[in-house]
Structure of LytR family transcriptional regulator:
Amino acid sequence: MLAAAGIGHSVVSGLETGIGRVDAFSNMKNRPESGNGMNVLLVGTDGREKISRAERKKYRLGGAPCHCTDTIMIVHISEDRDRASVVSLPRDSYAEMPEHVDQNSRKHHRAHPVKLNAAYAEGGPNLTVRTVENMTKVKIDHYLEVDFTSFMRTVDVLGGVEICTTIPLKDSYTGLNLPVGTHQLNGGQALQYVRSRHIDGAADLGRMQRQQRFLAALIAKATSSGVLLNPVKFNDVTGTLLKSVRADKGFGTTEMLTLGRAMRNFSPKSSEFTTVPIGKMGFKVPGIGSTLKWDPVKSKKLFQALRDDKPLAPHRVKRKAALVPVSPQQIRVQVDNGTATPGLGKQVDAELRRTGFRTTKVPGTVKPAPGARSVARTVVAFDPRWDRSAKSLATALPGCEMRPVRGQGPLLKVIAGTDFRGVRAVRAEDAYQGEFGAVTGDQVVCS
């Protein structure tokens, strides 16, 4: 919809008739002040009843629909329309729900603690907006509710979306089974990918990262395939997507066209993704269970950045980077100079740090034995218990020797040899960059 300007008012007006309308902002008081840019609350719901029985069985979508929020994101469109910042809010976040009337029981409830996704169950879009504004102090300008199963159809109309992974992704609950490598996912597989939360210990946080990568890949496919410049294809894609979209009454043709004109040059690098910083995992609340408590300092800074219309991800000159299993930002490295070349250790330390590795910044020197020559081949010394980290580091140092050293601990060591020619850029799918762990879309799509 954001690229609708090249399509025309009549086409967009026709598409708008397919959007369900909700009153997300009625009777709202004491709202946060408006900041710069536009904030859209994007809510993903279940809606599996719209998928055929055969597909529900194939993609393991059994059970009754919960009519609940599976995904909650704030999408901030910058004032200059050059950037979209997407902040995922975990559904199990500890939340303070404002005073309200339950839409199901019609009972009046005072303000009380809940998990964030309970706001939709008790009060629909309106209470969801109120709860998010109360927690973030960010004023929500528009509300978009998407039945995420509609992406299944949209992905198929687009011809599939490319996803890559450096680790096997297998979830017995959803049936997802992707080996290491690059995959072209159809709609059903894409739905499995964004739903999976039993792949590793990251659970729902890991699932949110995959949802963010999926959105980046979807943007990449839409902006590179020519679909946004082809009126017929555009109509097919948006018509499919909008069959299960609900929006506030103020988000109409004029708003779509205004955004479209401003964002016609949108690309993956124009988008950035992060998750609200978590301060305490498994925060127990009587009667509610285990919740995720936001980090009060970091989350406050994050939402202030949204209000101030500031980028969340650090500006980086994009370099082609090799995918590795462990993020450089999680690997500690000590660099030693094994040659007679002055300053080589300092050079290697600086280049590794620039690539993202957490070096000690205090390079040392390995003195050769009397009569021995300089180290010819760069060495990565590592404790076998940290072999995945060692492989990531070795990828950044092509041609190096990997030397296991039992008992060395988590600190990896690099002995720079005379063969050193530079550090290769590497990245991981779960890279943590910048103060809020934000990454741009072009950093998480397949190279």
